[in-house]
């Protein structure tokens, strides 16, 4: 069954940058679109970025121009480069299939933006 392992989170000051990674297993990674989600305290999980099998990307308005999603099919890994981070970006970040996520979720990686 599919498994996701997210990593790379941490504490960063406002305006800083961070790159989070997600390694997938149990699926033929290259044939799936992939996405990043986040869940802030007291809020519902939201999808923030997606990348198709051909590399076409899409972002929610709040992160456009600041976040970049990419993938490496040789490593079954999807990345999210986050620049110009804001306190409101603080959340646990998860990867999964966009729009129709698999039932299995990883443990996520915590990103905290604070001075």
Describe this structure in words.
By secondary structure, this protein is mostly beta strands. 0% of the residues lie in helices and 47% in strands. The chain has strands at 3-7, 10-12, 18-25, 34-39, 46-51, 57-59, 67-72, 77-82, 91-96, 109-113.
Q: Identify the strand order in the major beta sheet.
A: 2-10-9-4-5-6
Main beta sheet = 6 strands, mixed
- The strand count comes to 10
Question: Per DSSP, what share of the residues sits in E-state strands of 2 or more residues?
Answer: over 45%
Specify the structural class. Answer: mainly beta
Shape: globular
Question: What's the alpha carbon Rg, rounded to whole Å?
Answer: 13 Å
Distance from N terminus to C terminus (CA atoms, Å) equals: 40 Å
Residue share in helix: under 10%
Oligomer: single chain
- Overall pLDDT: 97
Q: What's the helix count?
A: 0
SSE order: EEEEEEEEEE
Uncertain residue segments: none
Features:
single chain, 115 residues, mainly beta, six-stranded mixed β-sheet, four-stranded antiparallel β-sheet, globular
Q: What can be said about this structure in brief?
A:
The protein has 115 residues and is an all-beta fold.
């Amino acid at each position: 069954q599919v498994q996701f392992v997210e990593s790379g989170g941490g504490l960063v000051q406002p305006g800083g940058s961070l790159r989070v990674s997600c390694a997938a297993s149990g699926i033929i990674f290259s044939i799936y679109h992939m996405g990043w989600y986040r869940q802030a305290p007291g809020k519902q999980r939201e999808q923030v970025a997606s990348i198709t099998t051909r590399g076409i990307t899409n972002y929610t308005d709040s992160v456009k121009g600041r976040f970049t999603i990419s993938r490496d099919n040789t490593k079954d890994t999807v990345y999210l480069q986050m620049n110009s981070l804001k306190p409101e970006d603080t959340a646990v970040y998860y990867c999964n299939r966009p729009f129709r996520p698999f039932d299995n979720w990883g443990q996520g990686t915590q990103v905290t933006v604070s001075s």
